[in-house]
Amino acid sequence: MEHIIAQLSLLILVVLLVSFIMRILKQPLIIGYIISGIISGPFFLDIIKNPNVIKGFSELGISFLLFLVGLHLSPRVIKEVGKISLITGTGQLIFTSVIGYFLSRWLGFAPLHALYISVALTFSSTIIIMKLLSDRDDMEKLYGKIAIGFLLVQDFAAILALIVISSLAGGTEAGALIAVSLLKGFLLIMLLALFTKHVILNITDFLAESQEFLFLFVIVWGLGLAFLFQSAGLSMEVGALIAGISIATTGYSHAIASKLKVLRDFFIIFFFIALGSQMVFGQLGSVIFPAAVLSLFILAGNPLIVMILMGIFRYGKKTGFHAGLTVAQISEFSLILIAMGVRVGHLDGDVLSFVTLIGLVTIAGSTYLIMYSDRIYEKISGLLSVFERKHVLERETLSRNFDYVLIGYNRTGFSILKIFEMLFKNFLVIEINPDVVKKLKMRGSNCIYGDADDGELLDSLKLYRMKMVVSTVPDIDTNMLILKKIREKNKQNIVIVTARQISDAFTLYGANADYVILPHFLGSNYTARLIEEFRLNKGMFREERLKQMFELKERAIAGQEISIIERKNGN
Prior knowledge:
Elements: H1 2-24, H2 29-40, H3 51-71, H4 75-81, H5 83-106, H6 111-122, H7 126-135, H8 142-167, H9 174-208, H10 211-231, H11 236-248, H12 253-277, H13 284-312, H14 317-325, H15 332-343, H16 349-371, H17 373-380, E1 404-407, H18 411-423, E2 427-431, H19 434-442, E3 447-449, H20 455-461, E4 468-471, H21 476-487, E5 494-498, H22 502-510, E6 515-517, H23 519-534, H24 538-557, H25 564-569
Parallel strand pairs: 1-2, 1-4, 2-3, 4-5, 5-6
Helix pairs in contact: 1-2, 2-12, 3-11, 3-12, 5-6, 5-8, 5-13, 6-15, 7-8, 8-9, 8-14, 8-15, 9-10, 10-11, 13-14, 13-16, 15-16
């Protein structure tokens, strides 16, 4: 036991030191984990003396990772992201797998190896992209929503790939095995769907009364289904993924995810350590050229097909460019897929090392591309015009001029729109959610679909001519762009913008914003004014209560209901 603890301690120390270097270089820590495995492997320090321990921790990491991925695969989410995510995601999968297969065959790989490699190349890293989008505060931007959508499409495709691979492990007739495995998977999923609907959904409130009990339940549920699927001749990966999907429908996915992230982050380290330690360097010289070719294909080819597809469906070149960069790498799913191929005997360690090398190159390259995407876009925006059609969906033309504009109909915009409807008739709403645009048009509001981050859209609207512009979009860069477009030509009209933090508010005031909305402070400020005005007058509080309840009902009807998790956590 002491020997195992010493081994794990040394491994974590190596990971810490390498991750520190990755942090300085602003690279994803996944790269650091794989490099740590290489350093700890037999070619360098050789400190992994108990590979079975690392393998066990690795399998736990994979299970927790796929369980958390499943938590974000609720069918409701797929419905929200829209048609373009499905089309773009499917198109990218087909393009990358087909071209990747023929490239792999041209580079000398056997048909089965080429098939595995081409499928592995199709998946982009949901974890890395979500992290980068969050760091850039781009989750709510149009390209961010679309990117999340086709990443979910990829994750659904991965379910099928994992089922097919696990079904091929028997070594007999492949077609029959796949059919039997798919039938087993279908029956298990149907039974789990019924169990989730009639049991899990009915006891979720009881489970959530104790955070510790909920935590234990989801661990047992996730690992239990992973074992069940493995016992049924499928794979534990599929079981963990299905377990997450079943919990996603309960409304407690965010709370569960926040609890399990620590376990996932710890145990998944050992999966990447194991990958790095298994890399074979004897043939490294012979795979550099093939790895460079396929890495270039992922870094350039995947963004290219996304830009082409989004251009066909009338999205702007900037949206297509930023969305395209999010698929310019392979993912942890790709490495899991190849590792499964090794485990079932279809592949050898050389292929695992080869795909891991592609992963290192593409993850590092795409990270820098996304981090500096704004600067890159400014340099090549003229060349990207070839991907843009004449009438862009995000730049709806106006039939008349408006004096007032509201950018973003969200929780803050809901109240502002009511004031606009009472005081002003000549107002316009700019909204990025197409469903909201339809609803607002149905109720008689002047509303267009558009992304406020699009400078060309702002130019076409001539915001500087309007008497008042209100932006409820909390992104600092978007609001700075709005202020720049307006203040270059008009310093007299009223511009109200939104910020998430105090430092951003001062930046916006420095750019001549007339007022900055800080949503987190609005509630406490309003409550303080109520206390000052009402003191101990319970009747006045009752009147205010009735007003608020009426407004909350209006918001609920408008689809702005706060989630169960937000209520539980008090957010």
